[in-house]
Structures are given as structure tokens and as C-alpha cells.
Amino acid sequence: MNQKKPNAAKLIAASAVASLICGCGQVDTGEAGFLTRWGEIISREPLSEGLHFYEPFGTDLITYNIKNQMSVVKTEVFTRDLQAMKLEMTVTYCLDRTKIIDLHSKTGKDFAKILIAPTVLNSAKDVLGKMEAGEIVEKRECATKAIFDTIQQVLMPHGIIVSLVNITDIDYSDAYEKAVEAKQVAQQEAQREKNETLKIKERSEQEIVRAEAEAKIKQLTAEAEAKAILVKAEAEAKAIDLKNKSLAASPAIIQYTLAQQWDGKLPVQMLGGGAVPFINIDKVKEK
Questions:
Q1: Rounded to an integer, what distance in angstroms lies between the CA atom of residue 103 and that of residue 100?
Q2: pLDDT digits over 65-100, tens only?
Q3: N or C: fewer beta carbons within 10 Å in the chain?
Q4: DSSP symbols for 199-227
Q5: Phi-psi bin for 273: left (phi > 0), alpha (psi -120 to 50), beta?
Q6: ∠ at Cα 227 (247, 211), nearest 5°?
Q7: CB 143 within 8 A of CB 131
């Protein structure tokens, strides 16, 4: 006996009857869900991903995205030196699946507005309020890390796990930016003057070194010349002394020297009473 296959109309009717008897809903991948009846949570644990059936009357399936999400927060803070600055921050977070039911019972779907935004604002004001405006730019990473630690400490007990905090924009007041610009100009001018002073000092030191070197050269030259004169004088004096000693020891040397220098001619003209030059050759020979 052949069995008849149920037609499409009967299947649709059966599905309609089933939907009236029990409701169904799906928890998608990356979500956590639970059931409520007339607004009261009836699930003890979060539901797993997949299709779930429940009584249709007064019962709802509530789901939360537990994948990474991003929240942008804008605020205005004052630094320690009372400088106003507009701040934009992004917070990357995800929800702890095991704490979804507790988060919903305390804050509901508006948890980002109720918990995340105020926590970010308070953390930024607390951290940046202890720093001067100029420090925030220089120590931006340190400031961001301090804000991250504070936010994480506050939100984690609520089942909000913060993975990243970024300061995406800092806008100082016009007055402060003008003051910073004027300060930078003054610093650059001061540095320029300092560099010029160092150049002048360096040139002066070089001139001093050059003058000292020239003076030293002149001194050494004078000393060398004086020493040369002294040596020459001592040599001449020594030569004269030796010559005098030789003459004293042998007077005939004078006669001998004259004899060597005489050309053998007598003077052509002589004044009256003048003595005729004469060399005593005999005496020279005797000596």
C-alpha cells in the first residue's frame, strides 16, 4: 500500500499550529541571549547559539552582541594649569557572556550610555586633571594608559571588558594655542641668540689661542735669536781671549803676521819726520 506524502499546505498549517502552541527564536553567532516573561528574566544561564523554543505568550528572547564593539566619547576637560581642552576618545570593548543577565537586569540595552560614557569621562577628567596641558602631548601614551587602567577597573565588574582606549583628538583653546605658539617663538629666538653667543665665544677663544700661539712663537724666536747672539758673542770672546793669550805667549807673531802681509814696497811719499815702516826680520827669525 502506497503512503501519500503530506502536501505543502498541510506543512504550512502544521507550522502555524506549532507557532501558536510554542514560540521560537535564534541566538546568532557572536551573541548571548536569555528569556524573559512579562519583562522578568526567567533564564538562569545565558542561552547558547542556535534555535530556542519557548511559550509564545508573554515570553521574549533577548540577545546581546558579545563581539568587539566601539564606543566614541567626546568631552571637555581642564588640565592642572586650568587649560580647557576638547577631547575625543574611542573605547573598544566586548561583553562578558557569563554576565549578560546581570548587566541587563541593572542597566539594560542602554549600558553604553549609562556605564561606558560616564566612566570614560570621569577617568579622563581624573587623569588629565592632574597633568599640565603641555605634558599631555609629550606624555600622551602614559595618559592613555592611565585612563585605560581606570576604565577597565570600573567596567570589568559589570561584565564589560575593555581591550583598547585611544585619544583620537585633542583640541586646545585658541588662547592656549596662541600662548604655545608665542612660547615656541620665544624659545626659538632664545636658542638662536644662544647659538650666536656660542659662536662669538668660540671665535673669541680661537682668537685668544691664535694670539697666544703667535706670542709663544715670537717668544721662542726672540729666545732663539738671543741665544744665538750669546753663543756668537761667547765664541768671539773666546776667540779673542785665545788670540790674546797667543800674542802674550809669543809677541813675535805680530811681526810675523805683518811680514806676511807686507808686499815688499816702501811708501812713495812720506811726511817729514815720519818713521819708515820697518820689520825686524832678524828678531822674527830669532823667535
A1: 5
A2: 999 999 999 988 888 888 888 999 999 999 999 999
A3: N
A4: HHHHHHHHHHHHHHHHHHHHHHHHHHHHH
A5: left
A6: 165
A7: yes
Grid coordinates in use for 169? 583628538
Cell matching residue 232 = 756668537
**What's the grid cell of residue 267?**
811708501
**Alpha helix positions (H), 44-172:** 100-106, 111, 117-128, 133-138, 140-155
- Specify the long-range contacts of residues 4-7, CB closer than 8 Å, at least 24 apart: none
Exposed (0-12), middle (13-18) or buried (19+): which is 95, by Cβ within 10 Å? buried
Nearest C-alpha neighbor of 163 from the set 99, 116, 107: 116
Q: Per-residue pLDDT for 164 more than 90?
A: yes
Q: How confident is the model at residue 253 (pLDDT cuts 50, 70, 90)?
A: low
Order of strands across the sheet with 69-78?
69-78, 84-95, 160-172
The model's pTM: 0.57
Residue 137: pLDDT band by 50, 70, 90 thresholds?
confident
- One-letter identity of residue 169: D
For residue 166, the cross-strand partners are 90
Distance CA(244)–CA(242), nearest Å, equals: 5
- 116-125 in b/e form (b: 16+ CB < 10 A) is bbebbbebbb
Q: Which residue has the cell 650666536?
A: 196
